[in-house]
């Protein structure tokens, strides 16, 4: 295991820590301002941060560059992700919100790949992967039932 | 969320990471404003800002840097390790935050979180092996 791998692994762990902190502070904001106002502020601050980086890098020209509208759906769907996270985190906690979100994300990804949705290359759900889905679903069920 | 990640990845590939993130937040804001006006009118203008609330405003900026970080490390250590390590970081920190906030450690959440982690590790290595048999 080389130094670069260890350094980047540490960064990946830091990324996970940052996600948990982000969900927590967004939840605090939603508790203070209400879900709807918090939603606007979170996006506004994200946009200001992205704009600041673009200004710093002097690459403000031609931002959209004829990007098809469908590729902006990520931002649209992200609104609902943040809204649902904010609604959940103040009721069921950070670990359960993130754990259940991951299980939902993996099952949705598997279904999308299985059916070849959104232009994805078709990848069938296989027997080899079935135990993983069962274990994760069991984990999600235990989180819900035993909390 | 899965669809959002896929679309964001396509957008990033088309316009570059920073411009992709800008478009992503701009598109989100265009939707968030009318939603807030439609559903959250009662809560607008009834807020007294306190200096301690500044930390609560950092979520949007943290989200931006998480995207940048993910795109930096994924080509270097691979999506498999990134997925596992990100989840370990998330669930571990989430458990600590929950314990601090509630003053209690939930056995159900701990066991459930560990099972999800085991399932995730199993899945990414099953994916890596790439010698699957179809069941359909």
Model description:
The complex is a heterodimer of chains A (147) and B (136). Chain A has 147 residues and is mainly alpha-helical. Chain A has five helices and no strands. Chain A has helices spanning 3-33, 35-56, 73-92, 94-115, 130-145. The longest helix of chain A is centred in the N-terminal third of the chain and has 31 residues, at 3-33. Chain A is globular. The mean pLDDT of chain A is 87. Chain B has five helices and no strands. Chain B starts with a helix and ends in a 7-residue tail after the last helix. Residues 131-136 of chain B have low confidence and may be disordered. At the A-B interface, α1, α2, α3, α4 and α5 of A face α1, α2, α3, α4 and α5 of B.
Radius of gyration of chain B: 19 Å
Q: Give the termini distance of chain A in whole angstroms.
A: 39 Å
Approximate helicity band of chain A = over 70%
- Tell me the β content of chain B: under 5%
SSE string of chain B: HHHHH
Put simply, the count of helices of chain B is 5
Supply the key terms.
heterodimer, A: 147 residues, mainly alpha, 76% helix, B: 136 residues, 5 helices, extended
What layout of secondary structure does this protein have?
The complex is a heterodimer of chains A (147) and B (136).
Chain A: H1 3-33, H2 35-56, H3 73-92, H4 94-115, H5 130-145
Helix pairs in contact in A: 1-2, 1-3, 2-3, 3-4, 4-5
Chain B: H1 2-15, H2 17-39, H3 59-77, H4 79-102, H5 107-129
């Amino acid at each position: 295991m080389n130094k670069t791998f260890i350094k980047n692994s540490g960064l990946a762990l830091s990324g996970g820590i940052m996600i948990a902190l982000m969900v927590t502070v967004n939840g605090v904001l939603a508790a203070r301002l209400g879900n709807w106002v918090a939603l606007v502020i979170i996006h506004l601050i994200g946009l200001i941060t992205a704009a600041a980086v673009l200004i710093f890098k002097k690459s403000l020209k031609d931002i959209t560059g004829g990007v098809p509208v469908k590729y902006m759906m990520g931002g649209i769907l992200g609104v609902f992700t943040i809204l649902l996270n904010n609604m959940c985190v103040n009721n069921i906690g950070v670990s359960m919100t993130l754990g259940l979100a991951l299980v939902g994300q993996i099952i949705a990804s598997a279904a999308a790949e299985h059916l070849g949705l959104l232009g994805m290359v078709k990848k069938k759900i296989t027997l080899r992967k079935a135990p993983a889905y069962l274990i994760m679903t069991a984990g999600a069920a235990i989180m819900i039932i035993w909390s | 969320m899965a669809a959002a990640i896929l679309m964001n990845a396509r957008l990033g590939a088309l316009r570059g990471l920073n411009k992709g993130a800008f478009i992503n937040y701009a598109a989100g804001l265009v939707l968030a404003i009318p939603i807030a006006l439609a559903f959250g009118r009662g809560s607008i203008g009834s807020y007294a800002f306190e200096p301690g609330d500044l930390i609560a405003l950092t979520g949007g900026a943290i989200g931006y840097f998480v995207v940048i970080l993910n795109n930096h490390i994924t080509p270097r250590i691979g999506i498999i390790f990134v997925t596992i390590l990100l989840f370990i970081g998330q669930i571990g920190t989430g458990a600590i935050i929950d314990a601090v906030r509630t003053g209690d450690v939930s056995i159900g959440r701990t066991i459930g979180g560990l099972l999800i982690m085991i399932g995730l590790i199993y899945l990414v290595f099953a994916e890596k092996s790439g010698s699957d048999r179809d069941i359909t």
